[in-house]
Design brief:
By secondary structure, this protein is α/β, with parallel strands linked by helices. The protein has one domain: 3-Layer(aba) Sandwich (Rossmann fold), CATH 3.40.50.1820. Strand 5, helix 3 and strand 6 form a beta-alpha-beta unit. Helix 4 packs across helix 6.
């Protein structure tokens, strides 16, 4: 979900499997802090800007990017899937994040951060840590289960459905490919072992990812080195001044 933009500068580009991925990086000490945005959001959103300012102050490396079909990257949004966007994330991280990055994922980016951490651990290159903001793990299946039968039928027969958005004037296309591919990346039916500390930040007034969903995710994560912070009056974006301060403190504590 798009938020206020940070000051513009020309992005660099990585071509991966024919997709032109836009990214911004700040040089500095490691481990690199990597921002993974949400569904239809972009790398210039408010929270990414707050982390860029943190990294400038700490002298830390920072990397942010747009998935294909998002922001300044190439491709069409409606052609995207969780697997495709995960591949985008892994390609940018492998190329520019260095060893043991700290992944910070918001909403859908929290799901992708968890999937990326699992893949990285399997490859013997685990992440240094995860900070997850309202992590929307398995959200595509949640969408599907909540759709009326007539909407499910339209997606199955036409291949897409224009879902009204509270964050943009135009509807969001929900495609059959997004739903079907999402089922291949579901996490909440098994233990999740990312191989690194995890800190979840969750608003209790979130209409998109209820805080009960964060509690469910917590049950699947290791008991050790996993923290959940609930913000009683926080919404989905967690972009108020006090929310940004909490995010900065959480990332700063994990980045020591």
């Amino acid at each position: 979900m798009t938020q206020a933009a940070t000051p513009s500068r020309e992005p660099e580009r990585l071509v991966h499997d024919g997709r032109s991925l836009a990214f911004l990086r700040r040089p500095g000490a490691g481990p690199c802090i990597v921002w993974l945005g949400g569904f239809r959001s972009d790398m210039r959103a408010t929270k990414a800007g707050a982390l860029d300012a943190l990294c400038a102050r700490m002298g830390r490396a920072f990397l942010r990017f747009d998935y294909s079909g998002h922001g300044e990257s190439g491709g069409r949004f409606e052609d995207g899937t969780i697997g495709l966007w995960l591949a985008d994330a892994l390609a940018v991280v492998a190329a520019h994040a260095g060893a043991r990055p700290l992944l910070v994922g918001s909403s859908m980016g929290g799901w992708i951060a968890l999937l990326a951490a699992l893949r990285m651990r399997a490859l013997g290159t685990p992440a240094a840590g995860l900070v997850l903001i309202a992590p929307a793990a398995d959200f595509t299946q949640g969408l599907w289960d909540g759709f009326p039968v007539e909407v499910q039928r339209e997606i199955e027969e036409r291949g897409h459905w224009p879902r009204p958005s509270a964050y943009a004037p135009e509807p969001t296309p929900i495609t059959r490919a997004l739903i079907e591919d999402g089922r291949r990346h579901l996490l909440l039916g098994r233990p999740i072992e990312p191989g690194c500390p995890v800190h979840i930040l969750q608003g209790m007034q979130d209409p998109d990812v209820p805080w009960s969903h964060a509690m469910r995710l917590l049950e699947h994560l290791p008991a050790e080195e996993t923290i959940l912070t609930l913000v009683k009056d926080g919404d989905h974006r967690l972009s108020r001044e006090q929310d940004l301060a909490l995010l900065v403190r959480s990332v700063e504590a994990m980045a020591v």
